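Sample 3 of the quickstart, ligand D-xylitol-5-phosphate:
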Amino acid sequence: MTAYRIAPSILSADFARLGEEVSNVVAAGADLIHFDVMDNHYVPNLTFGPMVCAALKPYAAVPVDVHLMVEPVDDLIQSFANAGADIITFHPEAGRHVDRSLSLIKDAGCQAGLVLNPATPANVLENVLHRLDMVLLMSVNPGFGGQSFIPHTLTKIRQVRALLDAFEAQTGKRIALEVDGGIKVENIAEVAAAGADTFVAGSAVFGQPDYKAVIDKMRAELARV
Ligand code: DX5
Ligand code: ZN
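Result:
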C-alpha cells in the first residue's frame, strides 16, 4: 500500500506569522513542509531564502521540502542544506549541469529531486534516476499559488509512475513522486490514482481556517484510492 504524504506549501501562509503557521500546520497533520524559493529571475515572483528556512526549521517537526525556483542553482544548495533542508529539488532548465547539482545535494546530506514544468518532457529523468530520491511534477506553471490544476498532468503522472516503477523493479530503490499546483480535496484522489504519492497543497490548506479539517478530508479522499 502506498504511503501518501501531504506537503502544505507555506507560500500561502500568513508571512507575518510564519513560525506559528508552520507549527500549526504540523500539528494539523502535515507530513512535510513545502518551502517555495522564488528568485524573480527563473520565475516572476520573489519569496524567501535560506535565512528564513533556518529561522523556521525549529518550528518544523517534519522534513523540510525545499523547492528551488532559482537560477543558477548550485550556490544555494549548500546554503539550504545548512539551513536545515531535508529534501532539495530544482528545475533542470535552471542549472547547466544537472548531474553535478544532484550530486551537490546528495553530498550535502539531503535528499535530491528534479522538478518538471508542465512543458518539460519526462525523458530528462532517464539518465539521472540513480541520483534521485524524488521527482516533482508541476501541475501549474511555477511562480504563484492559487492556480488551477492543468489536467494534462495526469497523463504525465502515469508516464513517470511507469518509469519509476520500472526503475524500482530493477534496482529496489523507490523514488517519491510529488505533484505541485492546484491540488485540493476535490482532485487529490484522482492525482493519487494516476500514481502520485506526495501532494503539495498551498491555497487549499492555508486558505481555510481549520488546517486539520482540510488535511483530514484529503486523507479521507486518499483512503479510498
Ligand atoms: C508554485 C509553487 C507551489 C504553490 C502551490 O510555483 O511551487 O508550491 O505554492 O500552491 P497551490 O496549492 O495554491 O496551487
Ligand atoms: Zn512548490
